[in-house]
Automatic annotation (TrEMBL):
The chain crosses the membrane at residues 7-24, 44-70, 120-141, 147-168, 234-254, 286-311, 323-341, 377-394. Keywords: Membrane, Transmembrane, Transmembrane helix. The keyword Cell inner membrane does not apply. This is Sporulation integral membrane protein YlbJ. Residues 42-139 form the Nucleoside transporter/FeoB GTPase Gate domain. The keyword Transmembrane applies.
Amino acid sequence: MTQILKTILFSSITAFIAFSLIKFPDQALEASIRGLNIWWEVVFPSLLPFFITAELLISFGVVKFIGVLFEPIMRPLFNLPGVGSFGWMMGMASGYPTGAKIASRLREEQQLSQIEAERLVSFTNASSPLFIFAAISVGFFHDTKLGILLAACHYISNAIVGICMRFYGRKQDKLSKKHKGKVSLTAAFHEMHQTRLGDKRPLGEILGDSVINSVKTLVTVGGFIVLFSVLTKLFFLVGLSSIIGIFFEQLLQLFSMSPDFALPLLSGLFEITIGAQSISHVNDTLLIQAILVSFILGFNGFSVQAQVASVLAKTDIRFAPYFFARILHGVIASILTIILYKPLYLDKQAFDTNDIPVSISTSDSLWVTILNQLAEIGPMVTILSLCAALIIAYRKRTDIR
């Protein structure tokens, strides 16, 4: 009976989306182009180097080297082997879904158990500094100092989530082994060397596989970005957003927030960029805006969650712990925003008014310059990378034949 209900539900939702696309073709095309532009101008060129580098570092044993050195830190804090530090650092530097990509690769390499991989995924899918400072703080709010507050709350709460998730699955994770060897550069180098020797692929094949795997993942990510951009627009056009927004209005009123944030918050739960931009346009106090933006950054949005789910689908890593951690991350980040708003934003504002804001304008222009350069060269990088991946895949297939 349950399977029949699922069949009816899934088919009904798909039919409804198809009907909406037919009814609103122009608006759907506009939303699709918007999502595609975000992907090929910024997302693809900014994430591709991190993805390829991560693949190479895992293949050459560098991640194993890092893992041995960071074992004394990662195990007590997060109940994870040292290799988890690589996913944590790369996830913070490059943004989602890098953390999920690295966790799935480490799981495939048997460097993490299932429970350990689920712990790692729960706190390594953070937003990148480029997105927080350039897109949200400068692009939407025109205030880089707000980026300091948002980034601090986002990354501190992310670490707190990791500490909380260390208790997840302790009874089930019987296969987890603590590093018993002496932590030293010699031991770390030995592990790295043995890992490299264990990979029998020639250098050219390793490079080709790294490019192809990274491009495949990013193409899937692009599909989800376009899909959720269209879905968000369709929900608004058919009136579903307004209906669901009534519930959010009541919820916001419980926390003494303006009901005008209902629709922007709902949009942010689906797609972070649209939600953050909509929140910045609501005429209310900056503190309330910062709290809601911190929440949707921590929650990741269903679009990012779908990207993570697609990356994890080929492994035995379950999605439920990651989803629970997203809610926890959003709540903790919102609370930290309230606590740190005065010391990290108001006090800094008062201090900066008495000084010449030379450094501020420099930091403002830095993030904007990076974002603008990505937008300019991003499409060319995307096209060339896709062509390179196609050539490598074609040659591999030819060699097999």
